[in-house]
Amino acid sequence: MAHGDSAGMTIRDYLNLLRRHLVLVLLIPVLAAVGAYFYSSSQVQMYAASAYLLYQPAINPLSTSAYVDPNAQELQVQAATAVITGLDVAKRVASAQGAHRLPSFSVQASATAPDQAGAGTSYSTGVAVEVSSPDPQGAARLANAYATTFISWRAETQRAALTAGANAVDDQLRQFITPQQKASSEYVVLQERLRELELRAATATGDFVVVVPATVPTSPYEPNPARSAVMAFGVGLFVAMGAAFLREKLDTRLRTSSEVGELLGLPVVGRIPMIEDGALAGGHLVIVDHRDSHFADAFRLLVTNLEFASMGGERRVLMFTSALQGEGKSVSIANLAASLALAGHRVLLVDADLRRPQLHRLFGLRNVTGVSSIIAGKAAPDDAMQVFEPAGQAAARIRTGATKVAAGKEGSQSSLWVLTAGPLPPNPGEMVTSQRFAALMERLRSMPYDYIFVDSPAFLAVGDSAALAGFADALVPLVNLRMSRRPILEEFRDRLGSVPVLKLGVIIVGEKAVGARYYRYYESGSPV
């Protein structure tokens, strides 16, 4: 998948992402759940008790109508919720209970509509008074106290208002003195009004009644460690998923060969696994010293793929390069050349990295004369080449006179010719772009080699590789998964695109083998 392109991710991509970050995805939710559980368990237990009040206006003795205005009822219920939690009721409760007997608590009042489902009412019919406290008995006692205190306060307020109205009417009646005034209809109306106010004041109930008194709760409503743990696990899982995606987006590492191939836009022609450090004890040519190893099998498969990609030798001159120094390019080329030689091919290996030559060290050859010597006119190609016999004894592997061997001795067809870099020149960049180097490559092309491999410097380090690519039939980039990063590979791709030469495919180094041991070849710090 394209890195960071979540819109194009498949289910397999998501599963692979979760697998790569499995520890993170599991650790965060588990830690969150465990922490929430123990934190919740350490909290003070809280109990809740509720008393329910029903709005029930007092009956007017002088009226036969029992109609209750729903809008007026809604206003009364909503006002009651504010009064119950107000300062006046709180003072009365504290005074009645005794401040020293009050536990720490919180009180809430909310409008209720218990008949909504059955009667279809859309307005509130009562008030729920809920008290939360660490003391279950105290919670029930205070819930009932708030309910009854509110009713008493409301009844007293109603009586006070009705009594004040009755006194005002009585003052008006005292103004009627003469019998004629007292016989007027206005006097009669005022008398009826006075009697009504006095009756209502005597029968004031506060318009609320406790229908369900609070009882002592048997279990706390909080903390709930199990619920807290489940919720924390869910939140932690959400956070962990986000962290995994963020980490994936910020992670520039390359993990599989398919990622490299997609990013470079090239087919993967070979995958060279990491091998154990012990395999390097006898030298870096593992294809020679450990022919039955998994590493050797990978090179033999690479040889087959390169033969198909190069059209059976039609593209003879192949240049190998990498984005960075130390990715394993020289070691890989040396083993690839040896593998071809063991398969019966005539291979010439040219070390064109005049800045940091490595091939002579890998093969144990002298580097007295080489490419730089030929370009400087101090040696001839025939004299500078050295022969390495992969199938021979260790003491008899190195010979000179490569041109003669390549041209005329059938018994040397399984040999490998190496043209080392030669002494370090002061101007390596000018040398590889000179006419003499072009002439050298034409001279090498005329020789009867099946393949000519050119080991070039790191592509992003210097410009030598871009110049050398013009002398090759095709270019083969090499990428080490352990060293390369996406930004580096993107720059590598852009630079390769500017070079007008055929790219056969990419060789992957350092991918973990599937179904086998994990190899660690490039952990040894070997010169490459």
Overall description:
This protein has three domains: 6-43 and 225-250; 67-212, no CATH class; 257-523, Rossmann fold, CATH 3.40.50.300. Helices cover 46% and strands 14% of the residues. The protein contains 21 helices and 14 strands. The protein has helices at residues 11-20, 22-41, 70-84, 87-97, 116-119, 136-173, 179-182, 185-202, 225-250, 257-264, 286-289, 294-309, 329-342, 359-363, 371-375, 381-384, 402-408, 428-432, 435-445, 464-468, 486-497; strands at residues 47-55, 106-112, 126-133, 208-212, 268-273, 317-322, 347-351, 386-388, 398-400, 416-419, 451-455, 474-480, 502-503, 506-511. The strands form two sheets. Strands 5, 6, 7, 8, 9, 10, 11, 12, 13 and 14 form a ten-stranded mixed sheet that branches. The longest helix has 38 residues, at 136-173.
Average residue-wise pLDDT: 82
| Helix percent band | 40-55%
Rounded to the nearest angstrom, the radius of gyration is: 48 Å
Name of the CATH homologous superfamily of the largest domain: P-loop containing nucleotide triphosphate hydrolases
Q: Number of helical segments?
A: 21
Beginning-to-end CA distance, first to last residue: 30 Å
Count of the separate structural domains: 3
Low-confidence stretches: 401-413, 514-528
Can you name the CATH architecture of the largest domain?
3-Layer(aba) Sandwich
Reported for the largest beta sheet, the result is: 10 strands, mixed
CATH class of the largest domain: Alpha Beta
